Amino acid sequence: MSKATDGRVLRSESHDGYALSVDDLEVQPDTINPRLRAKWENALSDLSRLRLLEPCGSDIFVITNAGFQHVESARRAAAFDRGINRVLNSVGLRKTS
């Protein structure tokens, strides 16, 4: 979801199954598996409860400002971690955690 340019997550259900998409990317292609549907519904609920997503109608969610900030923080942390690993590897050490 972090690469969404318009900040929308779309949920759809039809006779073909349950699907989620962000922009034009299907993150969960049509499935009739009830466990997968429950997993994604739980994720949407958790993200909404944390105010990282906001429901906008019954099948559309928008990423909130807090959601975008969370994604940017995670990206910066991941970039820092990659940098640390490169430095440690260059001197023959490996990060243990």
Tell me the number of strands: 5
SSE order in H/E notation?
EEEHEEH
The radius of gyration over CA amounts to 17 Å
Please, how many helices?
2
Proportion of residues in helical segments: 40-55%
Based on secondary structure, the structural category is alpha+beta
Largest sheet: 5 strands, antiparallel
User: Low-confidence stretches at least 5 residues in length (pLDDT < 50)?
Assistant: none
% residues in beta strands: 25-35%
Global morphology? elongated
Average of per-residue pLDDT values: 85
Number of domains: 1
Task: For the record, give the distance between the C-alpha atoms at the N and C termini, rounded to a whole number.
Answer: 26 Å
Strand order of the largest sheet: 3-2-1-5-4
Brief rundown of the structure:
With 97 residues, the chain is α+β, with helices and mostly antiparallel strands. Helices cover 43% and strands 28% of the residues.
Written description of the protein model:
- The chain has helices at residues 34-49, 65-90, and strands spanning 8-14, 17-22, 25-31, 53-55, 60-63.
- The protein is an alpha+beta fold.
- The chain has one domain (8-90).
- Strands 3-2-1-5-4 form a 5-stranded antiparallel sheet.
- It is elongated, with a radius of gyration of 17 Å.
- The model has no long low-confidence stretch (mean pLDDT 85).
